[in-house]
Design a protein that fits this description.
homotetramer; alpha/beta; Rossmann fold; seven-stranded parallel sheet; 11 helices; oxidoreductase (chains A, B, C, D)
């Protein structure tokens, strides 16, 4: 494996960049070189990310002073990476973007869900969607990796085997994602003010959620998935439930078979559907801090109604962990490297 | 109005009975006479319900020593009221049952969702479903009131005007109820053990939820409602989202019109769909402790997909408050009596 | 009692003003006339306080357009009331201030804990501290009521009978207040950003807490109370523990006697010290939304160490409820009027 | 280092045993051989500990079928290890006990706080208290390691440098530990029933806490530490505040010097006392899942009052992590092995 690869993070004071930083600091083949933040310029990264006290002496640097490195990670607000990519492309041969800017190739879907034309459609062809479960082969040689959206990951990984194997009836699939407060980022607002937010359950995006675009682009055949997002007051985690019908003639056995066939060798997907105990279905509390996506389901025999359930940590499997996994694939490293934390109980 | 009416509660150490007790103690026309509990016999009711310290000197009595009263409230586990009704019927001219025993007239639905034949089908005809929004007229003379299930209430009140006015397209309606831990009752178990339960989001009943029966029986035309229940770690409250399609030709205006027509005079239903502020849709945190059912919706113009959202406190509008409201209707009292608490912010 | 008294609230978009508004709307002898907010000018008060939807049509008005009323409530940030009192004094014969501006008469304590000279020492003599348990007689004729600080209330009410009756040994009393996030007000900040705040336990003010001044001024003999404030992630509520030693010769019986003597007739103080059940000591969860202060204690027989415990809702007994109670005393109304909510269980 | 050492865990279905299991599975030099549980005999360990799904195929075995191993870990309820040690002593040359049975040598303290004579005083001499910060040298050759109590660890590590260096004034030290629900173990009860427990703040052990004995035995000179325990509704974590006075003549500089002198080389202690940012003092949320003990303080200059603050994860640094650290010391392995997780933000 030789020496470590250097990685720098643009926008390291946010939650996505901070989580990538945490994982990169614990990765045996990565050496974090620079982390940028204009707001916290010169401050130790541990001022913002107190979990990193005593783990690194890195300080935030100016994005203008970025030096060449092996891998560059862009963790900037939506729309910035596409506009500023020219600034960064010469700095590193491999670039990962954690934003939504390069996840779609379908320009119509982009315009519909983001409300404007894509600023750099010419660049889109170079990017591979950072989802090893769907694009492992392409990732092996990808120098541009567009990391997945958190809600999209929960929906796509829950449904992919069923869609690919043709098990679902035609017609709409109603997906509900119950998300957490870290998904809205590190910027305070009245909506995220603790007394207003704690204990609340809000249907914050009943229709028109942008991740719908990713889901429709990346699921084979672009099924009619409808997405409703409900905000819980968990800090991390997504619970996804998708409701639809099984195609006539298929049974629970076929559902099991599809999941096993497609996910049997996946290191970070666990099928969770138990007959005893209190943890019978996926639960975001169980995967907190981990790169797992737990997937389960229940079939109503007499109607064929199928409920698919998945759970992830939005900042790990939904963002930075999925990015590290994609990078491991790209570099030819063991895919679980740096992603070993199993989560806590209780 | 004359003198107060006496009310006794059978099974007052549980959460439903305790909540009825709290509301009855604050009701100007009710006087609580007896509260039974075998387990806590002789203990002050405030030992179990610490909010009632200093509010009453009542002690738990033996159900065997119940005396005649004006109104008897049964708050026993499922299945007990139907079997033991003979014991109680002579004690009071008016009986309210908080359990599921008398909510259905359709014996097939009962058998399908409760897994056995109803023990006393002969009694069912006497009972009126304790939902003033649907059955106000019938409740005015009802001497047997079968109080509604909490999840059923959230679903029924969210959908009723749309179903009644014929606004929904044919086809399935997928309802998701995000419920809270008090819904499982006062009996400790591993599943309710705090370290296991706190922070968890569990799809605890993806299919086959018993309240589906009530929903199908009481919504006009018995629409195809599918119910998925997810357990959050709130102590109280339900957030319901229902996803379906509007019938072709109808618009957002029609949805507004239906809600206003049907609910315009309802004292406990608020249509919540704001264009500004951070509380734009129903949220169980806002209605905690109150008898409100907040209802909102969002329509996806291009597809006709409709998301209906409702929020209640499962122990108030979902149980004891709805029961008090039904009782107010029955007695000819102002319908909001004893139910004035507006909830807290924050 | 005659007709209702009109009350207006200056600064009604914050949590203290909003809570006073909620209580005033439910008070049988009060009519809310105006509620001011510069930021939300013209918006319905229910936009900010969603619990008040359907309960009032009031809109926020400009403080400059305040009209005369019977009672004026000032709910402004610290320091504003003292500076702007001239503006408001002609508007109403009775003024309540919810801020810290008029709570102290000792100018040295003010300077020590607030870091500057009091801007209007000439006014201080007119104000009575809004604590009926200590100053009921003086409040009966007070036209200026300085409402108490929330932490100060928890400490003072916990210790008052013991201090007054001379039961405590000389020497320091170490009080710890575990507070909640609403105490910091309605203004968002990084410290109150939900992902940062949820789950955290922060010693945010280990020394130098300003409420120490109130405690020392209003407890008889100005005992040496040291205050440490820890921020929990509850939205409402304070749990106070105070540790000190009983004076030699006194026993648990004497402690009981002191509490009974001083608090025996208090409508909002409950002595909570049970030998069975799970709610044996004061707990802010039990008093949420109520005007109760629950007080308990435990004595270590062999050392004489005494732990005093109290619990309040910081926005009710700690702010707006205590203010309403003081106002009830001033107006000669029943002291519990408008403060009847018993709290919820669970 | 050669081959891995085998470790077996007696009582692996509880939280302490489960946490040791999690850490041991991730430890490069440990191989978990057997995990016992009578209740879950034959079930996969991941049925109880869902975080371990896909990480191990171990099943719970009968304690009667334990085989010889290199290291045996006893994770049984209080009192069992002392009584049954004969059964286990032949199975492994090195034994760690996670209970309180062997933590004290002072038989009077044991009797006072545990209410009975120690059942096996003859064994106590062999055991070393599993606190590397105090007993690193002794642990290097210890074959019997008595792991520390969680609350005792928070108090001892907060105060040790100050006590050892003689910085504290004579007189009482009032320590308050704010603990979490996992501390009460995996057995459901009404007190741990989620609806009763969520949101509550309970002074559950104002006096007489058993860990006082450990604190007094292991802090040099047995200072007069008084312990009050308050239960929060966090699942994991302890925040400790201790209030006392600095000895006359000492200043903040001396406090810093003492901490730096004693803890300068400690791998798991961080001094947290910042002048900017929102994470200025120790917070259990920051150390969740980690083996860190964060320690901070604040000095009130004019009175000499000192508030010491510490934060740990009760199941890691307070139990299983401290045990692994002690074992690393005993085996001559790098002390941080298997304890690398830095915690999450947010």
């Amino acid at each position: 494996m030789g020496e470590k690869k250097t990685v720098s993070i643009v926008g390291g004071s946010g939650y996505a960049g901070g989580e990538f930083l945490r994982l990169a600091l614990g990765h045996p083949y990565l050496e974090v070189k620079q982390v940028t933040s204009r707001r916290y310029l010169g401050d130790p990264v541990s001022l913002v990310h107190p979990n990193l006290r005593g783990r690194t002496n890195l300080k935030f640097t100016d994005p203008a002073s970025l030096e060449p490195c092996d891998i560059l990670v862009l963790a900037m607000p939506h729309g910035v990476a596409a506009k500023e990519l020219e600034k960064y492309r010469g700095l590193a041969p491999i670039i990962l973007d954690l934003s939504a800017d390069f996840r779609l190739k379908n320009l119509d879907l982009y315009k519909k869900y983001y409300g404007e034309d894509h600023p750099r459609p010419d660049l889109l062809g170079q990017w591979v969607y950072g989802n090893p479960e769907l694009y492992r082969e392409a990732l092996k040689t990808a120098d541009r990796i567009a990391c997945c959206g958190c809600n999209a990951t929960a929906v796509i990984l829950g449904l992919y085997p069923l869609v690919r194997e043709g098990l679902l009836a035609a017609g709409p699939i109603f997906a509900t994602v119950m998300i957490s407060t870290s998904a809205a980022g590190a910027e305070p607002s009245l909506a995220s003010h603790h007394p207003e937010r704690a204990g609340s359950l809000r249907a914050y995006k009943p229709t028109g959620h942008r991740h719908t675009a990713e889901i429709r682009e990346h699921l084979p055949g672009s099924p009619e998935v409808h997405l409703t997002a409900v905000a819980t007051d968990r800090v991390r985690g997504i619970l996804m439930t998708a409701q639809t019908f099984l195609r006539a003639g298929f049974t629970e056995k076929d559902v099991w078979a599809a999941y096993r066939k497609v996910y049997g060798a996946e290191p970070f997907i666990r099928i969770v559907k138990l007959k005893k105990g209190i943890h019978r279905y996926p639960d975001p509390a169980v995967v907190e801090g981990t790169n797992y996506c737990d997937v389960g389901f229940e079939l109503e025999e007499d109607t064929g109604r199928l409920v698919v359930i998945s759970a992830i940590d939005n900042l790990v499997k939904g963002t930075a962990g999925h990015a590290i996994q994609s990078l491991n694939v790209r570099m030819g490293w063991p895919e679980t490297l740096g992603l070993e934390f199993p989560g806590l109980h209780p």
